[in-house]
UniProtKB/TrEMBL annotation:
It comes from Caballeronia sordidicola (Burkholderia sordidicola). This is Pantothenate kinase. The lineage of its organism: Bacteria, Pseudomonadati, Pseudomonadota, Betaproteobacteria, Burkholderiales. GO terms for molecular function: ATP binding; kinase activity. Keywords: Kinase, Transferase. Residues 21-203 form the Phosphoribulokinase/uridine kinase domain. Coiled coil: none annotated.
């Protein structure tokens, strides 16, 4: 459930009828996708979600680069491709259809051309870990966002969610806990350091 004050802010963001891009950023397991879905439901037909996770490098490329054991780290994404797509979405022509990639957790791979973005949709919601990072190609993301909301939640609940997610998609509980501590929490610390660049903090209370 989204509080009224956030809905009011969204309506103000869309008041002039122009294309707007809202970034939802937060640590792994913070509830970014859940919030994106809640906004979709609150603004039926007026929003689309384009996740940063669609720019995960393919598993075969991560293996080639020696980064498979750190999947989810900032250098395991095609950040330049993500920036390029955001730029296209900002400048989308009235006669243009844009297709964005998504990420399928059941196969742990990105899927190209899976999300159609029509030119008449006023709000593009993009969600991911590194939208406020100020290094490499990532530093070009923030200027392309009209607003950035930092999504926060109780740390213990976030860890429980992460472990449950990894178990759901194939790891046993010990392996899930090990991955969370070795990879997800390292990434979470990097993401948390960027929260000061957000316009506001959205905190889940349950």
């Amino acid at each position: 459930m989204i509080e009224d004050r956030f809905l009011v802010r969204l309506e103000q963001l869309l008041a002039d009828g122009q294309r707007r891009i809202l970034g939802l950023v937060g640590a792994p397991g913070a509830g970014k996708s859940t919030l994106a879905q809640a906004i979709l439901e609150a603004l039926p037909g007026r929003a689309v979600v384009v996740p940063m996770d669609g720019f995960h490098l393919a598993n075969v490329e991560l293996e080639r680069l020696g980064r498979a054991s750190r999947k989810g780290a900032e250098d395991t994404f095609d950040s330049a491709g993500y920036v390029a797509l955001l730029g296209r979405l900002r400048a989308q022509r009235h006669d243009e259809m844009i297709y964005a990639p998504t990420f399928r957790r059941e196969i742990e791979e990105p899927i190209a051309g899976a999300i159609p973005v029509t030119p008449d949709v006023p709000l593009v919601i993009t969600e991911g870990n590194y939208l406020l990072l100020q290094q490499g190609q990532w530093k070009a993301v923030r200027p392309l966002l009209d607003e950035a909301w930092y999504v926060d939640v109780d740390p213990e609940l976030r860890l429980q969610r992460l472990i449950a997610r990894h178990v759901k998609f194939g790891r046993d509980e010990d392996a899930a806990r090990e991955w969370v501590q070795r990879t997800d929490e390292v990434n979470a610390a990097l993401v948390d350091a960027t929260r000061g660049r957000a316009d506001l903090v959205f905190r889940w209370t349950s």
